[in-house]
TrEMBL record:
One of its GO terms (molecular function) is calcium ion binding. PROSITE patterns: EF_HAND_1, EF_HAND_2. Residues 169-204, 212-247 form the EF-hand domain. InterPro entries: EF-hand-dom_pair, EF_Hand_1_Ca_BS, EF_hand_dom, Ion_trans_dom. The chain crosses the membrane at residues 123-145. It is a multi-pass membrane protein. Keywords: Calcium, Membrane, Transmembrane, Transmembrane helix. It comes from Alexandrium catenella (Red tide dinoflagellate). It is found in: Membrane. Its main location: membrane. One of its GO terms (cellular component) is membrane. This is EF-hand domain-containing protein.
């Protein structure tokens, strides 16, 4: 069924145009996903470094707490309850250090819990907080930014491949359109065939889906006809439509370029003619003087 095939062609063109728009719309989302996936390896190393940091300081604070609370009376005292609940065991110490660094709890409360211990351990806790917040966190941020940069580079490579695939699909759609407009199937399209086919709503749907402004049929045909033989073959049609795709501003720019090229050719012809006339006039004026 020829009508069904024509409908399928129109649907294919619309689908290609939609894929191109979606591909550009979701670029930021895709780059964020690539950044997250690309940073997983770095995240594992960061977690290992933090675990070693928590374990080292946790052992120090747990040992100091158990040594200070040596005895049942001090261990069960209400005054040492904050110290016992925060640093009484290794797992509690690691959890308290993690919460103080990540914002799960105010690090000032853990600093107050260390008050029964010597000043050395309170100063050591401040060193831990400073090291974790100002050193480790900034380094981790830099690692993730670097991963995001590499993901952006990877995304650009993917974008290039997708643009090539989109161009390939676009040219296939335009080839179907040319076959639709070439009524006599001689491989070339005249301006009459072009104008007649623009009256067909299905052909207009092709051009509208591909963002081609064909409001002025003869001007568009003249832009497609590169060699000026009043016929457009498949190669001229594909290359011309690919250059003209976009909003109407692109078409206006192409019209201006064509007109400027026409003026340049005319000016060159006029300049050559004036040069010849000048030489002839100089020869005519020089004849009486030589005689």
């Amino acid at each position: 069924n020829i009508s069904a095939l024509r409908v399928i062609r129109v649907v294919r063109v619309v689908r290609v145009a939609r894929v191109i728009r979606i591909m550009r719309f979701f670029r930021e989302l895709r780059m964020m996903i690539f950044s997250i996936l690309g940073s997983m390896k770095s995240l594992l190393w960061v977690m290992l470094i933090l675990a070693m940091n928590f374990y080292l300081f946790g052992v120090i604070f747990t040992a100091a707490t158990t040594a200070h609370l040596d005895g049942v009376r001090l261990w069960l005292s209400d005054e040492t309850e904050p110290l016992r609940s925060s640093f009484g065991t290794l797992d509690r110490s690691v959890l308290s250090l993690f919460m103080s660094m990540s914002g799960g709890n105010d690090w000032g409360s853990y600093y107050e819990a260390l008050r029964p211990l010597p000043h050395f351990y309170k100063a050591l806790f401040l060193i831990f907080v400073s090291f974790s917040v100002f050193a480790v966190v900034n380094i981790v941020t830099g690692v993730f930014v670097d991963c995001a940069f590499h993901a952006s580079q990877q995304d650009r490579d993917i974008m290039v491949e997708e643009e090539l695939e989109a161009k390939k699909a676009y040219l296939i759609s335009m080839r179907d359109l040319f076959e639709e407009m070439d009524t006599d199937e001689d491989g070339c399209m005249t301006v009459e065939e072009f104008e007649n086919k623009l009256d067909d709503e299905r052909v207009l749907a092709y051009f509208q889906a591909l963002k081609l402004d064909v409001s002025d049929a003869r001007t568009v045909f003249r832009l497609l006809d590169n060699n000026g033989d009043n016929e457009v073959n498949i190669d001229e049609f594909l290359s011309g439509c690919y250059r003209l795709q976009g909003e109407s501003r692109s078409l206006d720019m192409k019209i201006m370029q064509c007109e400027v090229r026409f003026l340049q050719e005319n000016f060159a012809t006029i300049a050559s003619t004036l040069t010849e006339l000048k030489e002839q006039l100089s020869e005519q004026l020089s004849l009486p003087s030589t005689a």
